[in-house]
UniProtKB/TrEMBL annotation:
Pfam families: Radical_SAM
Gene3D superfamilies: Aldolase class I (3.20.20.70)
Taxonomic source organism: Streptomyces glycanivorans
Lineage of producing organism: Bacteria, Bacillati, Actinomycetota, Actinomycetes, Kitasatosporales
Keyword Methyltransferase belongs to the record: no
Alphabetized PROSITE patterns for the sequence: RADICAL_SAM (PS51918)
Name under which the protein is recorded: Radical SAM/SPASM protein FxsB, inactivated metallohydrolase extension form
PANTHER family: ANAEROBIC SULFATASE-MATURATING ENZYME HOMOLOG ASLB-RELATED, RADICAL SAM DOMAIN PROTEIN
Length: 758
């Protein structure tokens, strides 16, 4: 086992080792480990004090901002108010000034009273209660030793916790699943109590002692939980359900929200009433001593426990599940199930969960029911993708404003205020939107934010390019608004508009920019004024040129923006007039081929592509940029340029999707051999990028279809794709069908050499 141990952020303190109920599904008293019989009934002052000291040391060593202490049993309320007060005081004192303390208690609720809740209110102790549903469901297992029902007393405790004075202490309800109970009745009963959270727990079981399955179905528990899920959705998800929220989170690429699902490493340790340090309590279901470490709070630190092989085994994530689980596409959501549920005397814990079929059916069932609702609209709507990209740029600009925290001084504040003035009018807002949507505005923002984070001294100066962006927006809007902007090295660059020479090389200063009809004026502080026609070259003025190609609305040919050097090949310098005309002709021919051979892709590109940047042959460090740009190496060969253009469009679209939605998770956990390059292995991200690109290129050059079907099959059965990723894979299959159904697919094939285009 490699890598550092994960520090504990949560401890379970057993404050009492006996219980006032006789639940027949309890892992403490009814399963394999019977060590409770030798434990002290109540935790001692010595154990409390030493545990608090150990936790404070651990939090300080690992600089933990917060830790949780869960008071447990047995039934923890049997310890009594005085003992529980002692626990709260000791931990509060030990953690004061070290880490925030989150105190919780999990109880069956039978002893709960205002006396306890007033104590918990004093120390901020949150309360979770076990309840298995309506009376019929709860009484199936949660009874007194003499068979009496516990349900009325539990309801009384829940109602007490719902009172206004105690509601802030309510953690929610824990329900152990029994498939003999009516799933709808169970959910309805729990929801009627208006808890802040419901947590469903599969009954603890192993391969040696499997869960009951009255009808023999391997997916009976999934069927029961999906019936609950359907009811929950029908009712508008009235209460958060941790199990469902966790599956939905992982399907979208997020983290697991519960230890019983997902691959997050364990960060929990148990302290028994005698001070013994143990692993997670549920291991008591596996075999006698399964949870033991041989350590105690008197002689050992929490770091000692964290390094224990049994604990480390539960911190391995994907590497800690069985080989069967590693090959399963739902492992990212189920995580191999609860560690305890994997146990068998023959294979130890190196097995799938005894609930394996249930977990797979549950994940797939929730996926099928929710996929359409949780997929980002950016995957299906081109305009939505552009809108989300624009929102991202605005969010980054707001983030830069916050990150500067006044360091931009009066110049930043002035420009920020003028941007607000533009926002207040329709024309001004449209001009500002245009400039912020420029792809290299994103590059500028990310570059400055990275510089501020790295504390690079020039970062604040780079941020002060904002006035030039605001000035460009004002010019575009045509509003009668004067905007001060800085010129550098004698030049004033207005993004999306052009560059004006105001002074000699190396000179810096301020100028005031104002729109004047279809032109704009620039008045330099210290003398000099220019009236600039926006669309044509003039002495000292270099405008951003535009190319009109086919039916497309036209693209900026940006060979000026200082942040355009962000492609795999270096950006070309400003083109001369002849070269610019050659570029326009070549792009026009390439676009004609694109419209004939791949009309759907050409139409999509016409609605999303805004900027083309000439590149030089060679290698370059790629940097992020916004949506809507492609960099191209100059060539008169329209066919080659068409392929390069389409390749660039595919790459920029995939990057834009990844900016706003998670398409996969756990990238790099597995490797895949490229079907079109058999000696090369790549992570899922590389396989997806290559397949996405080749599907697009095959519209023009059909041989790019080689290996695509195999790659799609591999990704369909992989664990990494999120719901959004699976939607993208489906769209790629739809595109593949479009390739084979397109009569014009051989347009470019007939025009180019049959060697692969690279």
């Amino acid at each position: 086992m490699t890598g550092p141990a994960v520090p504990f952020r949560e401890i379970v303190l057993k404050v009492h080792s006996r219980c006032d109920l006789a639940c027949d599904h309890c892992y403490v008293y009814e399963h394999a480990d019977q060590s409770w019989r030798t434990r002290p009934k109540t935790v001692s002052d010595r154990v409390i004090a030493r545990t608090a000291q150990r936790l404070a040391e651990h939090a300080k060593t690992h600089a933990l901002p917060s830790v949780s202490v869960i008071l447990h049993g047995g039934e923890p309320l049997l310890a009594g108010p005085a003992r529980l007060r002692r626990v709260c005081e000791e931990f509060g004192s030990a953690l004061s000034g070290v880490a925030d303390l989150d105190l919780r208690i999990h109880t069956n609720g039978l002893q709960l009273s205002p006396r306890y809740l007033d104590l918990f209110d004093e120390f901020g102790v949150k309360v979770g209660i076990s309840l298995d549903g309506d009376r019929a469901a709860n009484d199936r297992h949660r009874r007194f030793a003499d068979g009496r029902s516990s349900h009325p007393l539990v309801l009384k405790a829940v109602e007490l916790l719902r009172e206004d004075r105690y509601r802030h202490l309510n953690l929610g309800l824990l329900c152990t699943v029994d498939i003999e109970n009516d799933p709808h009745a169970v959910l309805d009963a729990l929801v009627a109590l208006d808890p802040p959270l419901i947590d469903f727990l599969l009954p603890h079981a192993t391969w040696d002692d499997p869960p009951p399955r009255p009808d023999g179905s391997p997916t009976a528990y999934a069927k029961w939980l999906l019936a609950v899920f359907d009811r929950w959705q029908e009712e508008g998800s009235p209460v958060p359900v941790r199990l469902f929220s966790s599956v939905l989170s992982t399907l979208s690429g997020g983290p697991s929200l519960t230890e019983s699902l997902g691959l997050a490493p364990t960060d929990l340790v148990v302290v028994e009433t005698d001070g013994q340090l143990e692993q997670v309590d549920s291991l008591k279901s596996a075999y006698e001593g399964a949870a033991a470490t041989g350590f105690d709070v008197f002689e050992h630190s929490f770091d000692d426990v964290a390094a224990h092989p049994g604990v480390r085994a539960r911190q391995l994530g994907l590497a800690g599940v069985s080989e069967t689980c590693r090959r399963c596409p739902v492992v990212r959501s189920c995580g191999g199930g609860l560690y305890t549920h994997r146990y068998s005397s023959a294979g130890d814990f190196d097995n799938p969960s005894v609930y394996c079929a249930d977990l797979e059916a549950l994940v797939r069932g929730i996926d099928a029911r929710t996929r359409a609702a949780i997929v980002s609209p950016a995957l299906t709507e081109r305009r939505e993708l552009a809108a989300e990209q624009h929102d991202l740029t605005r969010t980054l600009l707001a983030g830069l404003h916050d990150a500067l925290d006044g360091r931009g001084g009066a110049r930043w504040d002035e420009a920020w205020g003028l941007a607000g003035v533009l926002e207040s009018s329709g024309e001004g807002a449209a001009g500002l939107d245009h400039v912020l949507a420029h792809p290299y505005t994103r590059t500028w923002l990310l570059d400055v934010l990275e510089g501020l984070h790295a504390e690079r001294p020039e970062a604040v100066g780079q941020a002060l390019r904002l006035p030039a962006y605001v000035a460009a927006a004002a010019v575009r809007s045509g509003l009668d608004l004067e905007v001060p902007a800085d010129y550098r090295d004698g030049r004033l660059f207005l993004p999306t508009i052009g560059e004006l020479r105001l002074a000699g090389p190396g000179e810096t200063g301020r100028a005031r920019v104002r729109a004047v009809g279809g032109e704009f004026s620039v008045r330099r502080e210290g003398g000099g004024e220019w009236i600039v026609p926006r669309g044509a070259d003039s002495p000292g003025w270099l405008p951003v040129r535009y190319i009109v190609a086919g039916s497309a609305p036209g693209f900026a040919l940006d060979d000026l923006d200082p942040y355009r050097d962000c492609f795999e090949a270096p950006a070309a310098p400003r083109l001369g007039g002849t070269d610019a005309e050659a570029w326009s002709r070549a792009v026009g021919r390439a676009w004609e081929l694109l419209e004939r051979g791949a009309p759907q892709q050409a139409a999509e590109a016409a609605g999303s592509l805004t900027t083309l940047t000439p590149l030089l042959a060679g290698r370059n460090a790629q940097r992020p940029h916004g949506y809507g740009t492609v960099g191209l190496v100059m060539t008169e060969d329209g066919e080659e340029l068409a392929v390069s253009l389409l390749r660039g469009l595919r790459r920029t679209r995939l990057r834009a999707l990844l900016d706003v939605t998670d398409l996969y998770a756990l990238d790099g956990a597995w490797e895949y051999r490229l079907p079109w390059e058999r000696n090369t292995k790549v992570p899922f991200s590389g396989l997806l990028a290559g397949t996405h690109e080749r599907v697009g290129l095959s519209f023009l050059v059909p041989r790019f279809m080689d290996g695509v079907s195999e790659a799609l099959d591999m990704m369909d059965s992989a664990a990494e794709p999120t719901v959004g990723g699976m939607r993208l894979l489906k769209s790629l299959r739809d595109e593949v069908r479009g390739v084979h159904g397109t009569s014009g697919m051989n347009v470019l094939m007939n025009a180019v050499d049959h060697e692969p285009v690279r």
